[in-house]
Structure formats: structure tokens, C-alpha cells
Amino acid sequence: MSNANNKLNLLSKADGPFRPHGRLELWSEGSVLRVQAEGPFNREAVLALGAAIKEFYQILPPDRNFVYLLEFRSSLMASPEALAAFADFLKAMSTAKTAPKAVAFVVAAAVEGACLMLPLFARLYADAGREFSAFETMAAAEDWLRERLRSLAD
């Protein structure tokens, strides 16, 4: 179902004095913007993610309801600077009216930092007014997002 030709390695979007820490790939599948991520993450990785998502929004159909599905592997850890940059990114998306309708994280129990970082991300999304939930399996996350998209279509 994924469009491999549409995959974007976010290291190519890095701009700044430091290299991004972590690995991020981004692609779209219909109304779902998918991110496959391996942390830990620094500020530069978050800035690269923001630049890539901004680029995607320039080619996606306007006025379409989108949801995000982020799958984390290895580590969910992020520096305080990365979290601050992420909060700024969420605010900028709200201002630009490009915020997703819902966001699902897939984080297996074995992912480093899951217990520490998930509540922090949940708070950032809540502060930004986003519907957010985290799941241990891809199937559960996909089901939840499908239901969100269905409710938007009604």
C-alpha cells in the first residue's frame, strides 16, 4: 500500500550546524502521512521533519483531511531542545492550518524511553489541540485512525 517512490529520507532535509540524530522516513498513503522513526532525536531531526512535512503539504490536495501514523523503533528518546522544537512545530502547523486531524504513535514496549517520552508527547499534542493516541501494534493504530477518518467524512 505504501508508495516507495514517495518515501523521503529526512536526513536530506537537514539544515543547520549539527547533523540530525535519529533516522526518519516519511511517505503518504492516501489520507495517511506515515513516518518510520528510530531515535534518539535531536533538535535538527525535528527541524528536518518539519521541513519535509511542509514540502509534502505543497504537493498534497488542499482541504483534505489527513492523519499521521508514526512508528518508532529502537528509541523514542529526544533531547529537551528537540521537544521544544517539536512544540514550536506543532504551533506553526496550527497557525498554517496544516495540522493533521489525528496522530497515532506505534511504540512497542521494548522501545527505549517509551514510558518516559509518551506522556511528554501526549502533553505536547494536547497543548496543541490535537487528537493523539499511542499503541503497541500497527493494527490497533491503523484501526483507530480509520475510525477518525470515517468520523470526519460523516
Automatic annotation (TrEMBL):
Q: Does the keyword Transmembrane apply?
A: yes
Which domain of life, per UniProt? Bacteria
Transmembrane stretches, start-end = 102-122
Alphabetical UniProt keywords: Membrane, Transmembrane, Transmembrane helix
Q: What is the protein name given in its UniProt record?
A: STAS/SEC14 domain-containing protein
